[in-house]
Amino acid sequence: MRKPGPKLLILISFLLLVVSAAVAVCIGTYHISITDVFSAYITYFQGGETTVVESIVVNLRTPRVILALMAGAGLAVAGTASQSAFSNPLASPDVIGVSSGAAFGAAAGILLFNNDAATQLMAVAFGLAAIAAVFALCKSSRSDSILMIVLSGIIVAGLFSAMVSLVKYVADPMSKLPEITYWLMGTLSGASYSKIIVALPMFVAGMVLIYVMKWRLNILTLSDDEVRALGHNPKKVRWTAVLASTLVVAAVVSVCGLIGWIGLVIPHVARLLVGTDNRYVLPLCISIGGIFMLAMDTVARTASVEELPLSILTAIVGAPLFASIFIWRGRGWT
Amino acid sequence: MDMIFRIENGGFGYDRSFLFRGVNAEIGDGDILAILGPNGSGKTTMLKCMVNILGLKEGKVLLGERDVREISRREFSKKIAYVPQAKSYSFDCTVLDMVVLGRSPHIPTFSEPSSKDVEIAHDKLDYLGITELKDRSFKTLSGGEMQMVLIARALASEPEILIMDEPESNLDYHNQLKILNTIKEISADVSCIINTHYPEHALRVSNKALLLSRGGTAIGGMTDEIITEERIGNVFGVNTAIGEVEIGGGVLRYVLPISIR
């Protein structure tokens, strides 16, 4: 089953990632050559006078590219972790209500405050509140079978979605409502270093946690009794994976809004290339997720005068991609 | 290895009733213990109590002199391996990867299998004579092959005792015998406990037997003394004839079902 050279594939994908990042910095309404990009960095770090071009490179496009990489890699990795944790190839972090929670937090933040940082923190707080609610529901039902976690997730997600609708209903249709709606469709247009720094600790913590347990994630796809017989507490491993994906998703959503499809599709693309072993799937998710997101965002900011919402693009590309994967896999689909 | 594994006055049940009670059994070096009983008599539950997935309500399971509830899961799983009834899996993987998973009790929490772990997995495939399966996808295997791979995975943790839940169920005639022979071979190094629906299989491979009945009582002892026409009749409600055939110096016994009581 395993295709020859998963390590080589991973290496190639990371080289491609670097190339795509470089290209993405060059492309835009204002085209900048790669040499100008490099000289912009050099001037910036030498602390000289910055020109408009240099400012575009350093303060606009670079944070945006970094954010695209974080979002793509993060959502893909969190998707893989969820799919393993729930032993279900259709799972994604959305299933347990994190995205809905964060969406409500951000919508309420936009409504109540006129401050990006406050909105971001609200998104993170309610993303975490959602997972806490799911955990509490499972605890009080004294069961944390996969089914119970998913059911709790559906309840929590449903509740938060309704509250998002409520916020939209009361929001001022001239100013706040478009802002909320736009945010709910995902965008990297507000990218800045300060936003990245706020999201970074949670993002890194979640990513590192998932990365070091990537082989253990393979074990989670077995039945709980088998996991126990192999010396692990399935609940502990599962909740750790769920919590780690929550951190990553809440961090990403708090900056970028809701971006669909990546968490579902990219893990499948990676598995198509290297099989199901998460030791190979996860690194590949980082690079492919990053490249995919970069491509989508570059299209989003260059295709028309107005920026296109990301979720529209990821769905337009992601849905057919997902369909072709399962047509391709055909019989092997599970 | 001189590890004695035993269940002392074991009882388990949900709510106030007991599924089984007063169960005593012991296995040591080279033993094979067969657990028999009708559907619903708690065979699988008994195994789950033995591997500490479920906790006994009464009595205790002892590994050496230690109560298994006092042993950490990881340490326990280095000594006792468990092969549950074959399940369907949501994700596929190669046979070799599946067997390497058996090494996990020996691999520290945030580490990954080393080349030595992979080597041990190879050894186990080799030991069971299924090396040619190693690159196959687990899901495409036949039932018999899957069972062999799961046994290899269990052996990869280098246990002292191997516990198998109906290892030969749902297999064809040939594969049933193959699994039974494998268990017999394994028992030279690792003591085995199996659940089985077939008294004949117990007679064939095991030296000890535990017969559970639906009333919750259990009788244990040497297989020859436990598997008798009378007891089979009482416990399963089936009249049988147990006979012998002499083959190549050995004696094989068969159990012929005659009628339902």
Keywords:
heterodimer, A: 334 residues, mainly alpha, ABC transporter involved in vitamin B12 uptake, BtuC, 14 helices, globular, B: 261 residues, alpha/beta, Rossmann fold, 2 domains, 6-stranded mixed β-sheet, 4-stranded antiparallel β-sheet, 9 helices
Notes on the protein architecture:
Chain A is an all-alpha fold. Chain A has one domain: ABC transporter involved in vitamin B12 uptake, BtuC. Chain A is globular, with a radius of gyration of 20 Å. The two termini of chain A are 15 Å apart. Chain B is α/β, with parallel strands linked by helices and 261 residues long. Chain B folds into two domains: 223 residues, Rossmann fold (3-Layer(aba) Sandwich), CATH 3.40.50.300; 34 residues, no CATH class. Chain B contains nine helices and twelve strands. Chain B has a six-stranded mixed β-sheet with strand order 6-7-8-3-9-10, with helices on both faces. A four-stranded antiparallel β-sheet of chain B has the order 2-1-4-5, with helices on one face. The longest helix of chain B is centred in the middle third of the chain and has 14 residues. Chain B is globular, with a radius of gyration of 19 Å. Chains A and B meet through helix 9 and helix 10 of A and helix 2 of B.
Secondary structure layout:
The complex is a heterodimer of chains A (334) and B (261).
Chain A: H1 6-26, H2 34-46, H3 52-85, H4 98-112, H5 116-140, H6 146-170, H7 176-184, H8 193-212, H9 214-220, H10 224-229, H11 234-256, H12 262-274, H13 278-302, H14 310-329
Helix pairs in contact in A: 1-3, 1-13, 2-3, 3-8, 3-11, 3-12, 3-13, 4-5, 4-6, 4-7, 4-11, 5-6, 5-11, 8-11, 12-13, 12-14
Chain B: E1 5-12, E2 20-27, E3 32-36, H1 43-50, E4 58-63, E5 66-67, H2 73-79, E6 80-83, H3 95-101, H4 115-127, H5 143-156, E7 161-164, H6 173-186, E8 191-195, H7 199-205, E9 208-212, E10 218-222, H8 223-226, H9 229-236, E11 238-247, E12 250-260
Helix pairs in contact in B: 3-5, 4-5
